[in-house]
Structures are given as structure tokens and as C-alpha cells.
């Protein structure tokens, strides 16, 4: 790819910092041109430098730019574009605030071109202790701000895949990843193995703190072998990615805080994960696999330090959790239709609850949901109630609990089983007086069909995504959605009956932000 022209280089540089070249103070024009000359028309160099300078306070701009100009002038003693590029990227790394450097290096845990989940990453940062708070700040909000700052500095590449959350995933540019790998090796920050014949040769007395194993296959057939000559006893993070079937003995990792296992089918025997009940320092646990590849404990004991437990991608017929004294548990996700624990009301620190099926023979745990007032994400499956619990009482209890959850931003109920008792009682939710006025995403799946669009929908002014089913859709319902929900970007409508007249989406009915419409 040819370097950018001088005109395009200037446009990219000044637009990123000031919005346009005309807005650049005159005293910064000269140092800007010299910085651009050093960038040599390389887009990554230009956008990285511009993003770094854009993050500086206005009062420091002149001195900061002179410092960058002088630093680049002293470093560029080679004719190699590659080395020039690496100098610029290294300068960007050195200029990161201290709290972001560890978060940035942690991206080296993922292989080249890997699509990294934003939620997964920030939860790992919190578990590693990289996120510090003060003055009553929320640790999860601070972690999100770290992610956003790295995006603003162009140190990671955002992947926009969601109308609501915006950046759901990110990637790392190949050259930035090369910088990360260099730094990780120099600082002994982490080790990555992606070759079945690999031998990680370290001094016997050198402590390996973080280990990532990527996509190793055939190890149990004797086709490859891995030797890690180093001290593993102090490992605090272990990640097995891309369906590897080689896992080091977990019992040795007594101090592991982050454990992420994506395990593929093993020909000889399934991986025994019953040891996870004895890893008392765990703060983050995520497991992906099926009954043929892994064996979980008969009852998973949630440790007192655990922040995140994610089993949502485990294919298992039954998951049993022991939840006793878990003051830190914030994110809990399980396989679809796992039974909601009776004592879930005691986990008052929960912010995410996904995958559970509401019990159809008792109201106790449904009522208990009302005590989880810090919940921001709730995804439940709703089966048809069984006697002796009447359908109306079951839906009433659910409605009462939802009214207490004022922190919700993401609510998904369903799919409901399409049986008449539950369908007839869906209108019980029409009487909600919701406290979750900051809700951004609402999914009400099949089986939960209202007679008409509930009036309380119009009070959710922050809603960006709505999926709802109704028996009859009237023009006034469309007007309510289109004019009262100014941020709505995605709308899914299930309409059971034929509209009585013409329905118009847009124009006089509003919908100023709508990007996606699905009707069926």
C-alpha cells in the first residue's frame, strides 16, 4: 500500500485532533508538519500520534508537541520504515498513563486477528487488579472507561456490532501486537504458546505469571508435546483458547485468578475440571465445551472472591451451583434453561444474570429477584407454569419483581413456551410500573404477546432496541413508540392480527434514530 499523500496525511492528522486543519492553533502548525514528516505517510503512525496528542489537556499541548517532535527526531536514525513505525508505536505506549499500560499489555493474551469481547476483556482486567477506584467510583464503570480510552488513543481497533452497546468487540493491529509481544517478553508480563511442538524455555527460577495456550490439537494422540521450563506455581492467569485439547495440570495453579478454558473434544478422555472447586483465589472463570470434552463438578462451588462466572457456552444438561457467601459475584451466566437457584436473592452484588429458567413450580426465587437491585443485565427463560402455581400468580410475581429493578439496562425474557395459560397472562406485564427508566435494550420473545403495546413502553426514553409481540397494532401504538423513544435504533415487531388500517413507520410517526426494522 502506498503512503498517504501530504494532503491526505494532514487531513487525517488534523481532523483527528481538532476536527479540521483550520481549527489548529498557528503555533502548532510547524511542529505538526515535522511530526507528520516523521510519520512518512503511514496511516497507523499518523492516527496513533494524532490520537495520543488529542488525549492531552489543551494547556499542555504546545509543550507536549515539542516533546514528541524532539523525541521522534532523536529516535529516527534509520532509513527503515518498519523501525520508524515501531518507534512511533513504542512512544505511544510509553505515553500511556500508568493504569492503562498493564491493560494494554494484557491484550497480548489473545492471538493475532482474534476478535476480543469488550465485556470479557474488562472483566479480566478487574480480576487481575488492573482497575483502581477512588471516591466511591464503580469499578466496572472505571474498567469501561479504560477500554474507551484505549480506543480513543487508537491503541485498539473497535468493532461496531451492536446498536445498543456500540463497540462489542475489538482487535489489535498486527504491529501493535508485535509491540505488545516485545514488551511482554522484556517485562515477563505473559507467555503465549501456539505451537504443538513448542518448548517454552525459561530459567527454572523464572516465574511465569500469565500463560495463554492457543489452538493446540492432537496433544493427547502423542503428536506433540509442550515443555514449560519455568516456575508455574505463581501463575495468576491461564487462558486456553481456540479449542485447544491440551491443558496443564490445574491443581498446580493454586494462586490463579483468571481462568478461561475453551476446550475441544479429547479422544482419550474428557478434561476433569472438578478441581475448580478448590481454586480459592479465582476471580474470573469462563469455560467453553461440551459433555464430551469437559467434566464439571456435580455442584460448582462459587468462591468468595469470584467476580465473574461464565458457563453460558457449556453444553450441559444440568448445572448445579452452590451459592453461599459470595459478596463479590457480579456476573453470572449459565447454559440455557438452568434452574434458578432458590437463594439467588442473597447475591445482592449481581449486575449480570443470564441463562436461567424461572422455576415453574414455585414463586420463591421469582419473588427473590426483586432484591437484586444492582442488576443491569437480566436474561431469563420462562417456561409454562405448572400447578399448583396458577399462571396469573406466576406472571404477577414476575411483574412485581421487575418493578423493583431500577438499574436495568438490558432485559430479555423468553422464549416463553407458547402454551395458552402463559400467553393469556402476558398482559399481566402490561400493568408494570417500571423503575428501570434507563433501560436500553428490551427483548420480549415469542409467547409473551400483549393485546396492545403497553403504555409504560413510552416512558423508556433511553431505549435503543425493542423486540415485542402484540395481537393488534394500532397507529397510536406506532406513534407512541416512534415519538416517545427518540433513541430507538432497532425495532422488532411480531403482530398476530392484521392491522385495521395503514401503518406508517417514520414521517409523522417519528423514529428519528431508527436503523433496523423487522416485522413478522
Automatic annotation (TrEMBL):
GO terms for molecular function: ADP binding. The lineage of its organism: Eukaryota, Viridiplantae, Streptophyta, Embryophyta, Tracheophyta. It holds the Pfam family LRR_14. GO terms for biological process: defense response to bacterium; innate immune response-activating signaling pathway; plant-type hypersensitive response. InterPro entries: Apaf_helical (IPR042197), Disease_R_plants (IPR044974), LRR_dom_sf (IPR032675), LRR_R13L4/SHOC2-like (IPR055414), P-loop_NTPase (IPR027417), WH-like_DNA-bd_sf (IPR036388), WHD_DRP (IPR058922). Gene3D superfamilies: Helical domain of apoptotic protease-activating factors, Ribonuclease Inhibitor, Winged helix-like DNA-binding domain superfamily/Winged helix DNA-binding domain. Residues 110-180 form the Disease resistance protein winged helix domain. The keyword Ribonucleoprotein does not apply. This is NB-ARC domain-containing protein. The keyword Amino-acid biosynthesis does not apply. Residues 237-518 form the Disease resistance R13L4/SHOC-2-like LRR domain. Keywords: Plant defense, Repeat. It comes from the Eukaryota.
Amino acid at each position: 500500500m502506498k503512503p498517504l499523500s501530504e494532503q491526505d496525511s494532514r487531513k487525517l492528522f488534523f481532523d483527528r485532533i481538532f476536527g479540521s486543519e483550520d481549527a489548529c492553533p498557528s503555533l502548532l502548525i510547524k511542529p505538526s508538519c515535522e511530526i507528520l514528516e516523521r510519520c512518512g505517510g503511514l496511516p497507523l503512525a499518523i492516527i496513533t500520534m494524532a490520537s495520543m496528542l488529542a488525549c492531552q489537556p489543551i494547556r499542555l499541548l504546545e509543550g507536549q508537541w515539542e516533546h514528541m517532535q524532539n523525541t521522534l527526531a532523536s529516535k529516527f536514525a534509520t532509513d527503515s520504515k518498519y523501525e520508524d513505525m515501531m518507534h512511533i508505536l513504542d512512544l505511544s505506549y510509553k505515553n500511556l498513563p500508568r493504569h492503562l499500560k498493564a491493560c494494554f499489555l494484557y491484550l497480548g493474551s489473545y492471538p493475532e486477528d482474534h476478535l476480543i469481547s469488550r465485556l470479557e476483556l474488562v472483566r479480566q482486567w478487574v480480576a487481575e487488579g488492573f482497575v483502581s477506584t477512588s471516591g466511591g467510583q464503580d469499578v466496572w464503570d472505571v474498567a469501561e472507561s479504560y477500554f474507551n480510552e484505549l480506543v480513543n488513543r487508537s491503541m485498539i481497533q473497535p468493532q461496531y456490532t451492536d446498536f445498543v452497546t456500540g463497540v462489542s468487540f475489538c482487535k489489535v493491529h498486527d504491529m501493535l501486537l508485535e509491540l505488545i509481544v516485545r514488551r511482554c517478553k522484556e517485562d515477563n508480563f505473559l507467555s503465549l504458546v501456539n505451537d504443538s511442538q513448542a518448548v517454552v524455555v525459561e530459567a527454572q527460577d523464572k516465574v511465569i505469571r500469565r500463560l495463554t495456550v492457543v489452538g493446540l490439537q492432537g496433544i493427547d494422540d502423542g503428536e506433540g508435546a509442550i515443555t514449560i521450563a519455568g516456575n508455574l506455581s505463581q501463575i495468576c492467569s491461564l487462558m486456553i483458547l481456540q479449542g485447544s485439547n491440551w491443558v496443564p495440570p490445574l491443581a498446580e495453579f493454586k494462586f490463579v485468578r483468571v481462568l478461561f478454558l475453551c476446550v475441544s473434544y479429547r479422544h482419550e478422555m474428557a478434561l476433569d475440571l472438578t478441581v475448580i472447586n478448590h481454586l480459592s483465589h479465582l476471580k474470573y472463570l469462563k469455560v467453553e465445551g461440551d459433555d464430551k470434552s469437559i467434566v464439571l463438578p456435580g455442584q460448582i462451588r462459587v468462591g468468595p472472591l469470584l467476580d465473574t462466572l461464565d458457563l453460558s457456552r457449556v453444553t450441559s444438561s444440568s448445572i448445579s451451583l452452590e451459592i453461599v457467601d459470595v459478596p463479590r459475584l457480579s456476573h453470572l451466566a449459565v447454559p440455557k434453561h438452568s434452574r434458578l437457584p432458590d437463594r439467588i436473592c442473597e447475591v445482592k452484588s449481581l449486575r449480570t444474570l443470564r441463562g436461567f429458567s424461572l422455576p415453574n413450580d414455585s414463586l420463591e426465587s421469582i419473588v427473590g429477584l426483586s432484591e437484586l437491585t444492582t442488576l443491569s443485565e437480566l436474561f431469563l427463560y420462562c417456561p409454562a407454569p405448572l400447578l399448583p402455581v396458577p399462571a396469573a400468580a406466576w406472571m404477577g410475581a414476575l411483574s412485581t419483581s421487575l418493578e423493583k429493578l431500577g438499574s436495568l439496562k438490558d432485559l430479555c425474557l423468553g422464549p416463553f413456551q407458547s402454551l395458552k395459560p402463559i400467553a393469556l397472562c402476558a398482559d399481566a406485564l402490561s400493568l408494570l410500573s417500571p423503575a428501570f427508566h434507563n433501560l436500553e435494550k428490551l427483548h420480549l420473545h415469542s409467547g409473551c404477546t400483549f393485546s396492545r403495546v403497553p403504555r409504560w413502553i413510552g416512558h423508556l426514553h433511553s431505549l435503543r432496541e425493542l423486540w415485542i409481540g402484540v395481537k393488534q397494532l394500532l397507529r397510536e401504538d406506532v406513534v407512541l413508540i416512534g415519538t416517545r423513544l427518540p433513541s430507538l435504533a432497532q425495532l422488532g415487531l411480531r403482530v398476530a392480527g392484521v392491522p385495521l388500517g395503514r401503518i406508517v413507520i417514520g414521517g409523522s410517526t417519528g423514529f428519528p434514530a431508527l436503523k433496523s426494522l423487522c416485522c413478522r
